Every structure is written in structure tokens, then in C-alpha cells.
Amino acid sequence: MNILNMDELRDRALLLIREVGPKRLSEKGGKNYERWRNISSGKIRISTEEVGILAQTFPEYALWLISGRTEPENGHRSPEYDAAHSNLPSQSAGSN
């Protein structure tokens, strides 16, 4: 069994914070903009409350955020998974 690596969780959280931006997270999560900005820049550590806000903001990434795992068949993705699959050609059933 793998032990949860907190540095990896922090890195995944930072990726999401940078993707959505401190301003939007402050509007969604009730934390102030300065706190999100300081977390994003690495000046302060992320708390479990902020991890929870990220999981609520990105429910499709919650499993990946906490564990690093994805289960796309169950709707649990990662930003990397989404980016890779957005570049695939769309499939059209029944077209000739």
C-alpha cells in the first residue's frame, strides 16, 4: 500500500489553483484572495480546508487531487487526462 505523499498532494493542489486562479477560488470558497495567492506562490502551506474547496470546485478531479489516481470510467479524471483527451479526434458513431 502506498503512503500518501503530502508533497505530491500539494503539487496537485497548486496545479489546480494556478489553473482556476486565486481570484475565482476566493469567490467560490470564502477564503480571501491574498491567502489563495500566497498558497499559489508557495509562501504559505495549503490547509485541509482549502483542499476541500478545491475538491468541491473540481469534483471530477477530487480523487486525483487526494490520491493521484484516476478512474475515467467513473468520471474521476485529472487535468493531464483531460488535456490528452481533448487533443484526440472526436468520434462520430454511424458516420461513413
What does this structure look like?
The chain is mainly alpha-helical. The chain is 57% helix and 0% strand. It contains 6 helices and no strands. It has helices at residues 6-20, 22-29, 33-40, 48-57, 62-67, 79-86. α2 crosses α3 (33-40). The longest helix is centred in the N-terminal third of the chain and has 15 residues, at 6-20. The termini are far apart. The model has no long low-confidence stretch (mean pLDDT 87).
Question: Could you name the ranges where pLDDT drops below 50 across 5 or more consecutive residues?
Answer: none
- Largest sheet descriptor: none
Instruction: Identify the quaternary structure here.
Output: single chain
Global shape: globular
- Radius of gyration in whole Å, from Cα? 16 Å
Please report which band the strand proportion falls in: under 5%, 5-15%, 15-25%, 25-35%, 35-45% or over 45%: under 5%
Helix content bin = 55-70%
Write the layout of secondary structure elements.
Layout (H helix, E strand, L loop, with lengths): L5 H15 L1 H8 L3 H8 L7 H10 L4 H6 L11 H8 L10
Helix pairs in contact: 2-3
Provide the descriptors you would attach to this structure in a database record:
96 residues; 6 helices; 57% helix; 0% strand; globular
